[in-house]
Amino acid sequence: MDETKRTPETILLTQQGAPNPWCVAAQLLLDINSIDYRLVPCIIDDHKEYIKRISGQTSLPVIAINDEIVLVDRYEIISHFKKCLPWNDDVKYWVELVAGENGLGWNRRLILVHEILSHPARYPQMVQPAMRLGANYGYCESTAIEAPERIQTIMRKITSAVKINDYIFENRLSVADVYVA
């Protein structure tokens, strides 16, 4: 019997248009691990049914491997790839600082939402999406006003770490570096 080894097909559904940090990080993880993949840019509002059929949700990124393994959030994606990159409590701390709740990406979104909701006449078509995004990120005016200070604190920590090494954690690439990029 001829047993031909099949190359796994990996598909990355990513957000088309404005960069999504989680999509960029997922793409970097695939690239760093030299995994061949097919990039499928999606506009969430136009492709909701397709995304939901593949992943059971309507957010991105989604990584599908051989139609069997479907990774749908940053923790699943990190967990899948941490076998290939250093992972421990220190790296987890940095990933949370950058990509976790109230981390760098979180606070940047609060600032964006605040700008749009504070000036609805400037961004009339963005008000509804900003309200949805704000609901996901616990937006209120006070958290948005405090966000730049939290970002500065996070960036000082990252800058201090990279001054010691070329990377955030020790002197080698980790998932934390991917999320900062």
Short account of what is shown:
The protein has 181 residues and is of the alpha+beta class. Helix content is 54%, strand content 10%.
Give your account of this protein's structure.
By secondary structure, this protein is an alpha+beta fold. It contains eight helices and four strands. A four-stranded mixed beta sheet has the order 2-1-3-4, sandwiched between helices. Strand 1, helix 1 (21-32) and strand 2 (38-42) form a beta-alpha-beta unit. The protein is flat, with a radius of gyration of 18 Å. It starts with 9 loop residues before the first strand and ends with a helix. Mean pLDDT is 82; it is low at 1-6.
Strand order of the largest sheet: 2-1-3-4
Count the strands? 4
Q: Roughly how many Å apart are the termini?
A: 47 Å
Average pLDDT, all residues: 82
- Overall 3D form: flat
State the low-pLDDT regions, or none.
1-6
Number of helices: 8
Share of helix among residues?
40-55%
The helix/strand order is: EHEHEEHHHHHH
Could you outline the blueprint of secondary structure elements for this entry?
Layout: E1 10-15, H1 21-32, E2 38-42, H2 44-55, E3 62-65, E4 69-71, H3 74-81, H4 89-99, H5 104-118, H6 127-136, H7 141-164, H8 175-180
Parallel strand pairs: 1-2
Antiparallel strand pairs: 1-3, 3-4
Helix pairs in contact: 1-3, 5-6, 5-7
Summarize this structure as a short list of keywords or feature phrases.
181 residues; alpha+beta; 8 helices; 54% helix; flat
